[in-house]
Design brief:
Blueprint lengths: L3 H8 L2 H18 L7 H17 L8 H66 L5 H7 L1 H29 L15 H7 L14 H7 L8 H8 L10 H12 L65
């Protein structure tokens, strides 16, 4: 595996490490499988050799059938052996797929702990380097600064590999036998937008040089990025794709403030002020409802409104 941080994260999870080891053993077993021609070709070769020998004066072999059948069986045995080893490799590949799929969060947790260690080391190195920004200036500053500068260069590579490993794990394992991952992964846009580096800051708010690194799909980081990341206390590795989705939602959802200047909570129950009432409109033709027709007719209510005149109908003729 070319990414040492990804390899270390997989080794840190016993289930994934065991599946990887079984796959390596199966691949080694397949590489050691003997090669042979096809059974049909092996049988045909024996028959052809007997015919050529007979035409050159050699007596016809009485056991030609047995020879041809044995050549076929031997070649077929080699072929079946190779096929069995190929099946072992394929099943080991699916076992790795299942192990990574079930334990991705454990591997991401390891990367989070690893990032904390790298950033702690980076803070110490930056404390020694100070404002030095070039290798030439580091050489002039002395041996301690040179050593710290060299350490920072190594840390840049380590963090680059760690971020690449982070996204490889968040992307999920590739199904064995498929040419490439599908194109429907929701995290692709988050990667391109620069999320997944710090928990509480939108990529748009990062310094320009850092923002370019955040949105670099290759995830090759710079010393400027490392200094910025080491200066923050919210640098992290998302523990899962769902956790990253929640962080992105928080950073991209507009915040509304209430009358007190605090973030509005639209789910908090609140009592609305009572709306002032208004008297009913009573027209001259209105009548008081009569609930009991056995009694006298109630007096008409006192009108307080009049019916407006209808708007004149326009005629264009």
């Amino acid at each position: 595996m070319s990414n040492p941080e990804l390899a270390a994260a997989r080794r840190a999870v016993p289930e994934i490490e065991a599946a990887d080891n079984r796959l390596d053993a199966a691949k080694e077993l397949l590489a050691e499988a003997p090669h042979a021609e096809s059974p049909d070709a092996a049988r045909e070769a024996v028959i052809t050799k007997a015919a050529e020998d007979f035409l050159s004066g050699v007596a016809w072999p009485k056991d030609i059938g047995k020879r041809a059948a044995k050549a076929y069986d031997d070649a077929d045995a080699v072929l079946v052996d190779r096929q069995a080893r190929q099946i072992a490799v394929r099943r080991a590949e699916f076992a790795v797929y299942d192990a990574v799929d079930r334990h991705t969060e454990d591997a991401l947790t390891y990367l989070g702990t690893r990032l904390e260690a790298l950033l702690s080391d980076a803070r110490s190195a930056f404390g020694i380097v100070g404002d030095v920004s070039t290798a030439e200036a580091a050489i002039e500053a002395g041996a301690d600064v040179v050593a710290a500068w060299s350490r920072l260069r190594t840390l840049v590579d380590d963090v680059s590999n760690l971020r690449a490993a982070q996204w490889a794990l968040l992307r999920g394992p590739q199904v064995p036998g498929t040419p490439a991952h599908g194109g429907d992964w929701r995290g692709r846009e988050w990667l391109r937008a620069g999320f997944g580096h710090v928990r509480t800051l939108s990529p748009d708010e990062a310094p320009e040089g850092v923002r370019r690194v955040l949105r670099d799909v290759s995830k090759r980081v710079t010393q400027e990025y490392l200094r910025w990341l080491a200066s923050r206390d919210d640098a992290y590795v998302p523990g899962s794709e769902d956790e990253l989705a929640g962080d992105v939602a928080v950073l991209t959802t507009p915040i509304s403030l209430n009358d007190s200047g605090q973030p509005a909570d639209y789910y908090e129950p609140r009592v609305r002020p009572e709306r002032p009432g208004r008297p009913a409109e009573i027209y001259p033709h209105s009548q008081t409802p009569q609930l009991d027709y056995a009694g006298p007719t109630p007096a008409a209510p006192k009108p307080n409104a009049t019916v407006a005149d209808e708007a004149p109908a326009r005629s264009y003729f």
